[in-house]
Amino acid sequence: MGRTTLGDPPAAGTDPPASGTEPPSPRPRRRRGRRAAVLLTAVALTGAAAVTVTNAGLLEGGGAEPAAAALPPATTRITEQTLDDTRDVDGELGYGPATTAVSRRPGTITWLPDSGARVSRGRSLYRVDNDPVVLLYGSTPAYRDLRIGAEGRDVENLERNLRELGYDGFTVDDTYTEATAAAVMEWQDDRGLDQTGVVELGRVVFAAGAVRVETLDAQPGQPTGPGRKVLSYTGTEKVVTVRLDAEDQRMAGKGAKVTVTLPDGGRVPGKVTEVATVIEPGDGPNAEPQTRLEALVSLTGGKKAARKGVARLDQAAVDVTFTAARREDVLTVPVAALVALREGGFGVEVVEGTSTRYVAVETGLFAGGRVEISGPGLTAGMTVGMPR
């Protein structure tokens, strides 16, 4: 007559047996072991990264629960919340990767800044034969003499810096004109250089902004020449450097928001500003090199105490929390609340007073021991069954 026996798995929408019907044979319900299998499988599939799982094929052929004959041993409520799948990785707080400044002119090093010194636009980065090598801001490195008739991005960089330093009488564009040369001669006079109107190769160094001297690779009095290292420099702002596996690129895209946890427990928001591919040598003589990602994270604010904590640190190990996936305002239950349905897929056991029924659900994001669910008639606050 279609009666559900204890050996049959549950189907979505089934109700408990009516009172007075013949009781089933006294075999154990095995609720706890079945739910443990669901939990273990879900955890194995989600792993450390964000995984979106539907009910298709998951726990295919697994054991199923019979229609409820009694209330479950424990319950929980369906919750509406934002579900974040996060991953913590190690990072290093510092000033980011260093850039090496090499000499482009022969001569003798006559002055160097101190390690840790900060150099801004228009100031001397070092001196050769007592003439300054000047720091200017720009994205294109200096690679040639700049003179009347030259065209290009480096010309525009030079003119923009001259304007910021207070020189005028020319148009900021990509063409080196006589007006540009006149402004250069005025600048040369102010810096104690010969007034040639030509910016010779090696007279300026273009950097993204103000720099902090990291290390010195030469000493005053030493000879220098084209290609010889003089010093290395970094930016002046604290950043966090993170190494990730290549497959984690989806988490660390440029602009991704993260949370940085400092050694004292303070938390500071951050944002990924740069991602580069790096090749790391293998651990052994025959080991193959590994391709990894290096992400730079800028610190974007946070509480005053946390910002002070950052300022006090020079080099420090920190934790960086990436959000791999986010689902806002979704219904969630603990992963252990899922039951495998006889017809396939997953459901939850909805508790209504002294009776229960099974409702089929679609699963979404798994994170933090919870899972996103959707199904007919499900709302936040409903009670569902749980293992003890």
From TrEMBL:
<keyword id="KW-1133">Transmembrane helix</keyword>
<dbReference type="InterPro" id="IPR050465">
    <property type="entry name" value="UPF0194_transport"/>
</dbReference>
<dbReference type="InterPro" id="IPR036365">
    <property type="entry name" value="PGBD-like_sf"/>
</dbReference>
<protein>
    <submittedName>
        <fullName>Peptidoglycan hydrolase-like protein with peptidoglycan-binding domain</fullName>
    </submittedName>
</protein>
<keyword id="KW-0472">Membrane</keyword>
<dbReference type="GO" id="GO:0030313">
    <property type="term" value="C:cell envelope"/>
</dbReference>
<keyword id="KW-0812">Transmembrane</keyword>
<dbReference type="Pfam" id="PF01471">
    <property type="entry name" value="PG_binding_1"/>
</dbReference>
<feature type="region of interest" description="Disordered">
    <location>
        <begin position="1"/>
        <end position="33"/>
    </location>
</feature>
<dbReference type="InterPro" id="IPR002477">
    <property type="entry name" value="Peptidoglycan-bd-like"/>
</dbReference>
<dbReference type="InterPro" id="IPR036366">
    <property type="entry name" value="PGBDSf"/>
</dbReference>
<feature type="domain" description="Peptidoglycan binding-like">
    <location>
        <begin position="152"/>
        <end position="199"/>
    </location>
</feature>
<feature type="transmembrane region" description="Helical">
    <location>
        <begin position="36"/>
        <end position="58"/>
    </location>
</feature>
<keyword id="KW-0175">Coiled coil</keyword>
<dbReference type="GO" id="GO:0016787">
    <property type="term" value="F:hydrolase activity"/>
</dbReference>
<keyword id="KW-0378">Hydrolase</keyword>
<feature type="compositionally biased region" description="Low complexity">
    <location>
        <begin position="7"/>
        <end position="21"/>
    </location>
</feature>
